[in-house]
UniProtKB/TrEMBL annotation:
Family indicated by similarity: Belongs to the glycogen phosphorylase family.
Catalytic activity: [(1->4)-alpha-D-glucosyl](n) + phosphate = [(1->4)-alpha-D-glucosyl](n-1) + alpha-D-glucose 1-phosphate
NCBIfam families, A to Z: P_ylase (TIGR02093)
Domain of life: Bacteria
Names of required cofactors: pyridoxal 5'-phosphate
Catalytic activity, EC: 2.4.1.1
Claim: Transferase is one of the keywords in the record: yes
Name listed for the protein in its UniProt record: Alpha-1,4 glucan phosphorylase
Biological source species: Thalassotalea profundi
Pfam families, A to Z: Phosphorylase
UniProt entry keywords in alphabetical sequence: Carbohydrate metabolism, Glycosyltransferase, Pyridoxal phosphate, Transferase
UniProt xrefs under PANTHER family: GLYCOGEN PHOSPHORYLASE, MALTODEXTRIN PHOSPHORYLASE
Function: Allosteric enzyme that catalyzes the rate-limiting step in glycogen catabolism, the phosphorolytic cleavage of glycogen to produce glucose-1-phosphate, and plays a central role in maintaining cellular and organismal glucose homeostasis.
Keyword field contains Metal-binding: no
Amino acid sequence: NSNTSSNKNTLDSAMLKVRIEHHLSHTLGDIIINNVIDKQCTETKKAYWHATSLALNEVITEKLNQSQLRQSQSACKSVNYLSLEYLMGRLLSNNLHNLDLYTITEKVLKSLGFELADLCEQGADLALGNGGLGRLAACFLDSLATLDYNAMGYGIHYQHGLFKQHFADGHQVETPDMWREFGSPWEICRPESTQLIPLYGHIEEVPQADGSTETKWTAGKTLKGVPYDIPIVGYNSSTVNALRLWQCRADSAFDWDKFNNGDYLMALEQQVHAEIVSKVLYPNDEHAAGQELRFIQQYFFCACSVRDIIKRYQAQYGALTPAQSEHFSSKVAIQLNDTHPTIAILELMRLLLDEFQFQWQDAWQLARKVFAYTNHTLLPEALEKWPVKLFERVLPRHLTILYRINEAFLNEEVNAMWPNNDNMRRALSIIDEGGEGNERKVRMAHLCVIASHKVNGVAQVHSDLVKSDLFPEFNQLWPKKLTNVTNGITPRRWLKACNPLLSALLDSEINADWAKELTQLSLLSNKADNADFQQQFMQIKHQNKVALTKEIKALTGITVSPDAIFDVQIKRLHEYKRQHLNLLHIIALYRRLLADPAMEMYPQVFIFGAKAAPGYKLAKDIIFAINKVADKINNDTRIHDKLKVVFLPNYRVSLAEKIIPAADVSEQISTAGKEASGTGNMKLALNGAVTIGTLDGANIEIAEEVGNDNIFICGLTVDEVKALDQNGYNPTDYYHNNEEIKACLDWLDSDYFTPGHAGALSPIKESLLAGGDPYKVLADFQSYSDAQNKLNVAYQDKKRWARMAILNTALMGKFNSDRSIEDYIANIWQLTPVSAN
Ligand code: 26V
């Protein structure tokens, strides 16, 4: 399973040791005086982590340079992935694994008195994203480099990533993420690629010699974008690509006049204002932010990235003229990760028209060949709409271009299909006319669909719903434009690196590089009933559970038994993901156990990890409720540890890497039709957890792969949810007709879980009754509870459970993100790989 010879790295342990020690003493300052250092102290470990990263970086940057040279010599097409979010996690262990240098680095550090795994823990997570969308972008970059494609990720160099979370008396408290407080060894600043970005100001119509007029934009302000490149190391490949993150600074740092006049603070004002643009990641997941600052963030990012794409094209192929139009689109693809980078379309059009003297038709044709758009959600509140007034003030020239795109689209394409049909024009227009006191808004998704040659959803059922429910008219107009690319995850981070014990077992069983060829794991199916293999597989699961048990103790003080079922729900906190359905069932179990202490039940630990958007009141109430119910249950000796509830604080990529290898059960219980795909579902199943879930997103495809005997499906289907909505869903019926539901919800009103504070948990009950239970928690409760009972019984049959767990690992090959990338290549990007051999 080792690297093929051409990808082998020429770094032996002697040289590695020299380099680490060099960085310790020369670039980091001499912290080792006469070898008297405390190897247990955090500062020392941090220094060694830093030195190891810098030593590795020499290998990486060399490969990065070679890759760039090779890619430009081959004149291959490249994809530019535009995303406001990248949830990278830690980089050291992954880079070592991908370069096949993990083992020798481990040896070298051992000789220096350190555990590599321990040092890896010193690195900060790069948490430049919220959840699924950002983590998907990170997995895709890994796959693109692994498959030797020429790809550039573009993003924002946020000073503060996603907030850190801790609990105070059960409530979520947010603190700023300081991932770069002392610098980051991975990033390379590229001042030579700085961009100046105009905004605000006014436009005027300037008469031309030929009698026509041209629109001239005089900007009111200029921002400066400085790029930082983070190398993306492919696994066992010759490619290292870059993730280019833009930092915003003031055009001129300083107002000398003000400074000389003694107004020192005001002299710095410009700088402070500009730096705000890349200061912080917006922490809303599935809820569009309406602030001007977010809009400017999006524009700043798009303008820097599009200019950089053109600049790199010109550096390689010379001037960009209308005659080069075809050529440009044969060399450049731009993928929009949701609508957040939509302004890139307008910025490319503006540059072509105003700076490169393109005619409208040439510019528009080029844009339509270059752009493609991925939709990641159907939730109405997450669909971005920006006020026309805001556009007009910040980007007046872009707005005129947007109007022209809309005019041409409505008058030509819509009118050809539906002549003189005002309803269709209204439905498809990029502008939502508002009316009745509502302001006019720009529908970003419409602009994306109109300007892209392909639009994809992220799992089959989601893509079907994009066609039938979100954009049915667009689908009629362009039947081939809407398509599906089912998400995937990188098996490097999500199995090889995070689960070394299972990886070693797979290495010994599978005679192929399964971390690349994940479908090879299906060979394990033959051993699913083999007693010896079952024993080895479940022994590893047990060891991983022991490790998580220690982590749980360290983080929360709670003692859990590694022999219990580890039932895991880890994802952003949102009503549609239904952590409160899980909670309601836990309360029901607790109640059953109190009523009948001898009740037959295999001990089960419910483990949660989730951050709530800081402004999402009910999500925070649900976190509080889970914590309070956990307190009560974990300290109630009457139930003899049959039930435990753990909420791990500060859920993030690096914590996921510890939880996932130890999970027995994967909770994927979103309301059918609401979770576009999910990717945690894939990670957990790959590591041998059995899913309890609804027929939603990629769960459906997971069920197809593992078969119905190896998954616990529950709840309403998409069609049943629709039918319920059409016939009028009444949650109070379930409350009155199901004695257990009623008792559990009423319990929340008492002060049982919050002594002295009756009503503290009532908001949850209210949302499910008076609030109308928009996500059908009560409708799905009984079905979920029944599935949980079956699962608990199934676990007690050790052989049956081992078989299920093994088959889940064996049959996840489809969800390799390499497969997703090959789908994008074949259907959307049309790239060819370039490798050294
Ligand atoms: C995010 C944000 C973040 C900042 C403020 C504004 C805003 C508005 C909307 C969104 C939507 C994020 C959508 C998203 O994360 N979707 C998830 O994408 C995953 C990858 O495709 C998928 O697996 C999840 O099911 C889907 O929820």
